Amino acid sequence: MGGFFDRIALAMAGKSPWGGSGGADDGKGNTSSGGEPSGEGGDSGGGQGSEPPRGPRNPWLPGGRSDPGDGEPRRSASIEDIFKQRGPEGPRRRQGGPGGPPNFRLPPAPGGRSWMPLIVTGVVALWLAFSMVHQLGPKEQGIVSTFGKYSRTIGSGISLTLPWPIQDVHVEQVSEIRIFQIPDGDTQKLMLTGDQNLVNLSYLVRWSIKDLTQFRYQLAEPENTVREVAEAAMRASVAEEPLDSVFSGAGRANIEANVRARMQNVLDAYRSGVQIQGVEIRKTDPPTEVEEAFKAVSAAQQEAETYKNQAEAAAQQVLARAQGDAAAFDKVYEQYRLAPEVTRRRMYYETMERVLSRTDKTIVETNGVTPYLPLPEIKKRAAAKPAGGQ
Predict the structure, then answer these.
(1) 166 and 80: one domain?
(2) For the whole model, what pTM was predicted?
(3) Cβ distance 229 to 267 under 8 Å?
(4) For residue 193, how many other CB atoms are within 10 A of its CB?
(5) Is residue 310 domain-shared with residue 329, that is, in the same domain?
(6) Do 264 and 210 share a structural domain?
(7) Which of 44, 125, 171, 207 has CB atoms 3.0–4.6 Å from 33's, for a disulfide?
(8) Contact at 8 Å (CB) between 227 and 180?
(9) 204 within a domain of the structure (yes/no)
């Protein structure tokens, strides 16, 4: 620290603050190097007759000169010299030179005034225009808050508010139908049915905002709340239906209606400002682990249903035939009551005609006629003769 203070003292006295290599004038035109005086006409570190050294460059003098000029006494840099170099009246530096950035100035405004007030006024005007004027679309609404506290709700069109940060506007699409799917992607969402079976179920929920103030301030995370309420309502509705009902179209429609009603009731109780537009079940599949077994059971059930339908069709045919026979018998009975003898004879002839038409033997009980005639055999021989003759 002693050497540091010594250099400061030398600088204050006009000496070189950079060590022994500097020179100082003794007032007679002689310089000393390294703090040792030299005689007139002597040299220091140079040949005889050379110009005596003037010492190191003083960074505090104008232009960094070692001497203020010929004939001028050596002096130390003053505060005025330092600020004179930094001020506007100092020497102009070369553009892009090592002395610093180029000396660029705006042209003066009309009347010699500065542009700064006009620039500040323009920036303030733009800030006021962007923070006070708000234009909302036909499906949008805005919440105006004053220092973070709710103030009012603005609708579509142009509205004016106080500038930020006094008032702030939060804009939302209130008429837009928002849709989310549960579950996200291809992951499984297993639910328990009423008959203790598991089903992998995927569904969509459509909803919109009906009260922007409640939607903004009543719930911390309204979208997550709607998602969780939808999942809870779906699980409760599926648990009331058997597995076959979940897979059928009518059962799925019933579940969708129940889920929508449950969700709306819960969200209204929360004062969430949300309107449920609809619920749509997109997929109902068995769990992946038992999918093959479930397909086998489903195929067996379909086969059993096919056999059942065939049996019912055959039963309907037999029943229809029996009903037809009964109706025919009723008609014959009516005729029998009117003419019993004729009806009995007619029934006998018709019965014998049906029986004899199906037999190959014919018996004739008449004198002079062979009792047995193989008529079918004769017909076969008669038909075989033309074929053999060809």
Answers:
(1) no
(2) 0.48
(3) yes
(4) 20
(5) yes
(6) yes
(7) 44
(8) yes
(9) yes
Report the distance separating Cα 153 and Cα 171, nearest Å. 10
- Count Cβ atoms below 10 Å from residue 211 Cβ, excluding itself: 16
> Do 304 and 372 lie in a common domain?
no
Residue 191 lies in a domain: yes
- Burial class from Cβ neighbours inside 10 Å (0-12, 13-18, 19+) for residue 292 reads exposed
Q: Say how far apart CA 119 and CA 162 lie, in whole Å.
A: 22
Region of residue 266 (phi > 0: left; psi between -120 and 50: alpha; otherwise: beta): alpha
Render each residue's pLDDT in the chain as its tens digit; 390 residues: 556 566 666 656 555 545 444 444 444 444 444 444 444 444 444 444 445 555 555 555 555 554 555 445 555 555 555 555 555 444 444 444 444 455 556 666 676 677 777 788 888 778 777 777 777 877 787 888 888 778 787 777 777 777 777 777 877 888 889 999 998 877 878 898 888 888 888 999 999 998 888 888 888 899 999 999 999 999 999 999 998 888 888 888 999 999 999 999 999 999 999 999 999 998 888 888 887 888 888 889 889 999 999 999 999 999 999 999 899 888 888 888 888 888 888 888 888 888 877 776 666 666 776 666 666 777 777 777 765 555
Determine, yes or no, domain membership for 40: no
Which residue segment(s) compose the domain that 210 sits in? 178-285
Residue 160 and residue 66 share a domain: no
What is the rounded distance in angstroms from the CA atom of residue 258 to the CA atom of residue 279? 9
242 cis-preceded (ω within 30 degrees of 0)? no
Identify whether residues 280 and 183 lie together within a single domain. Answer: yes
Distances in Å between the Cα of 41 and the Cα atoms of 20, 22, 50, 332 are 21, 18, 9, 171
Q: Which amino acid, residue 200?
A: N
Q: Into how many domains does the chain fold?
A: 5
- CA distance linking residue 70 with residue 7, whole number of Å: 26
